[in-house]
Fold this protein.
Amino acid sequence: MSYKILLLDDDRLFLKSLEKALKREGYEVKALDNCREAIKEVESEFYELIITDVRMPDMNGLEFIEHVREIQKNGDQSQVMVITGYASQEVPIKAVKAQASDYITKPFETGEFLRSVKKNMEIAGLEKEKLRYTQELEESNRKLREARDLALRNERLSAIGKLASGVGHELKNPLTNIRNSVYYLQNYLNTDEPEVKEYIETLSMETEVAERILSDLLNFSKATTLARERINICDPIEEAVRTSNIPQDILVESALPDEGCFVEADYDKMKQVFQNLLSNSVSAMPDGGTITIKAECKENSVEVKLRDVGTGMNKETLERLFEPLYTTKQKGIGLGMSTVRDIIKHHKGEISVESREGEGTEFTVKLPLSQSL
Ligand SMILES: Nc1ncnc2c1ncn2[C@@H]1O[C@H](COP(=O)(O)OP(=O)(O)OP(=O)(O)O)[C@@H](O)[C@H]1O
Ligand SMILES: [Mg+2]
């Protein structure tokens, strides 16, 4: 590898002879007789070694070195050799202060000069090598950290998955019993008593919420299977709206095609998708507002857009939205959106999101239309 040298001396003859000697040794040399041009050169090129005379016409050589250090403060540093005409102690001290790496006093023999240059070049080479090793080390450390974080995360997720599957199965039966009992009571009482009606409705809604959380948990532990059939996607959407706990100050406006849109899908899972999306929109709208749901049949797919005018999401949340266990809520589990994504993916669909902080969020779910149309 050839190293580059920037050589500065105002004595043109002397400059020429040093340039020649250096080129004979195989170095690439740029020879200049003023500091102004040299500064421009340093700004645009990296030289492993800069050799400068102290006494230059337009600037003191030591001042020039300070400029060089300033230019290179955030990057690779050149070795700097100072040529001085004085055999005093003062110049070397000043040179060291200006962060020169070496100095040589005039008059000197070419051989002595070249040996000095060689020594400085070896240092420059070592510095480069050191920099490369440091960068490699930092890179391996970063990869190691990432691998460790991933392993920890996977271990954690798998432990939670096992727990979720166990607890989920245990809760499934009691919840089904509660739901059946509520249904029985509803029919048996068949009352117009507003308070009783309200209690029964609350029981029914809360069971639905518990079942939704349970489904998220089972989905997360991969303990579920798909039961696909030909369904009108508007049906689970309507049921999700009906069974979700929507506060009075939130209005849900649905625009669903009368003729329906048919897909091959698991009805309950689709209901869960829209319940999860609705639940998030509701939590994002503490001051109320309107949630709009629009379904449209395209050539080969159905596109459902669900828009809210809630808090919206910042960059980090948008990036981590579908990550299992990512939540910004005090009481959230962080499984809602990862479940939604898994379900859509298993139906060979797509989900995308657009969100602006303080303005709201829009999810677009795309599913392939049923082939048997
Ligand atoms: N419509 C939305 N508007 C604003 N933020 C949202 C919206 N949907 C999701 N988020 C953000 O994404 C995060 C993850 O959502 P996700 O549904 O996965 O979990 P969660 O709602 O926090 O908990 P849960 O498991 O109970 O659903 C939320 O905590 C919230 O910060
Ligand atoms: Mg959620």
